[in-house]
């Protein structure tokens, strides 16, 4: 896909995500809805018009380009060696999570127990690991898509299973902002594959919702969600198998 097509696709996605119609864009640009549809169809946007649409969405051209670049990046998992180094230092793993979620260097130091020197040292390690590219003024460019997945059964996934999930699932999920659903049934192989696609789409949608949330860090709060599916029968019922 060309750079122009990537930008147009990102504009469409961002408008849809914010509930903005072509009519809203037409009003902002002083054009007819038909003209806006033609612009999106041909991709013949001037930088000035892209800037106007970004202003309408409350975002910037730089951010739009970064998001388009991230979506175009492959979502391959990290290598085994990369993951092993991440889990060898829990603080490095935590900083990686912050960076993947676009926490700025200033907020890492301000909101968490990192000194400037310590945070920079971890960023340098991530740069050497080819997880990020460290840029001037301690800005970070991700070298992996934010949609990447941890290696199945790999070091990070085992760390999550052994430490994070045990604590996360210990809750009864009875709070006003908590949800817990558990359901199962007998399904065909075709339906199992369909359920996999549904969960994958749900995971992408959740990631996009989080990505679109530009609340200031002071207003933010930690959150976690789990989407899981596997062929499974409760071991306690195994005695009843024929």
List keywords for this structure.
434 Repressor (Amino-terminal Domain), Arc Repressor Mutant, subunit A, mainly alpha, 3% strand, two-stranded antiparallel ribbon, 242 residues, 55% helix, 11 helices, 3 domains
Would you mind describing this structure in some detail?
By secondary structure, this protein is mostly helical. It folds into 3 domains: 3-72, 434 Repressor (Amino-terminal Domain) (Orthogonal Bundle), CATH 1.10.260.40; 80-142, Arc Repressor Mutant, subunit A; 155-240, no CATH class. 55% of the residues lie in helices and 3% in strands. A two-stranded antiparallel ribbon has the order 1-2. Strand 1 and strand 2 form a beta hairpin. The longest helix has 24 residues, at 189-212. The mean pLDDT is 86.
Task: Offer a concise description of the structure.
The chain is mainly α. 55% of the residues lie in helices and 3% in strands. The chain folds into three domains: 70 residues, Orthogonal Bundle (434 Repressor (Amino-terminal Domain)), CATH 1.10.260.40; 63 residues, Arc Repressor Mutant, subunit A (Orthogonal Bundle); 86 residues, no CATH class.
